[in-house]
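Hey, sorry to bother you again with one of my protein questions. I've been puzzling over a protein and I'd love to understand its fold better. Take your time with it, there's no hurry, and the full record follows here:
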Amino acid sequence: MKVLGYGREKKVILEAPNYDNDCVLANILAAHYLSSFEPVRARSYALAAESRLRKATLYEKEVFEAVNYLLSENMDDDVALKLHSKLLEKFPKDLLSWKRVETLCSYMGRHDLSLPLFRKILFLPHNEGQVYVNGMLAFSSIELGHLREAEEAARKGCEINENDSWAHHALCHVLQTECRFKEAVKFMEEHSDSWDSCSSLRFSHNWWHVAVCYLEGGSHISKVEEVYDHQMWKELEKDDAVARDVYTDALGLLLRLDTRGKLDDGFQDRLEKLADSLTDKAMWYQDWLFDITTIWALSKVEKTSLAHELLEGLKSRTSAMNPKKQKLMQKAILLAEAVYEYGKGNYEIALELLGLDFDAANYKVIGGSGLQMDVFNEIWYKLLLLNGKSSTAIEVLEKVTKQRDGAPFLWRLLEESYSMEGKEKAGISAGKKAKALESSYFKSA
């Protein structure tokens, strides 16, 4: 339940082998918990689980096979998903395994694989009204653009458990995507007290959504500062905080401020402070989104040698992957290279790397959601304008503003694009649209 509810005490699983050292389930789940930050210790738990398989139940054997494969070197995502699907066909009540499927598909960038599974699980008799199931369905639906289904599932999840932070998160995704920024902030802040018991991952990220909604909705920058300082960054003061999770969200917010030219509005010092923390190499190579945005931050504050070291390390690790995974992750490497050049101010090289038909949705293999990936689209829009590609920018932004008509920043970019092309009337119209939106969401904020 600590995993499904994003609780702070996920490490409680380490106590299970102490109570029953012969339990396969206790040992393999402890191994999975430790795998991302203590791989050697994780391996010892996995071996302990394997040595006790002879007396294990069928369920334990199926879980062991699926989870142990996740821990293997050069793990094939498709095989991992097949093993979990086989497990869940036999044991569909296993919500923890469903959660692993959700995470796996997110890092594959393949929510099209998880959504049919979640639709199936939701309508099984024993899962009707089950806590956490609707949140999982909602998130996969969001990532595939099924916003009505996602909103319905997220609200249902909140009805079943008003403190379901994942359902809160899913509903915010819908509202934010549809530019319902004020509604999103109101909903999230009303439920924020329930996040105090959540892990750094969920606490910080839910507040990240609030900060981005304030930013996108044209609120005064002080509201963004308030959320960053008193919610996101303040999480680090807790004894059990996971710094890397907080830093990931801080990076995502600061990068958005950079694309809007707002780092100088009191945030440059925050970026410098964050970058100092990112020099701790023990945090590197655990999460692609973190690593790529860290490369930007380090290069932006002129810690170029460290940024280059991290970039080369990613390339080295990719070269050691199986050929199938290696080919898939080339997009991640290209994005990392572009962000590195962007951070250094080499805008022409950065655009050459991304090309003229870039779409961040095609780079979800780094593990980011659609909203997290949007910042890379923002970088690309900015690079188009910085390199004089205003006609291309107009073509792209006219399409994007139809999809997100209520996003002021997109209209500001379109205004600038029209101006560069000498389209004065269209530029004035786009500027008026942006100004009206900027004052419509948070008039008193």
Summary: The mean pLDDT is 94.
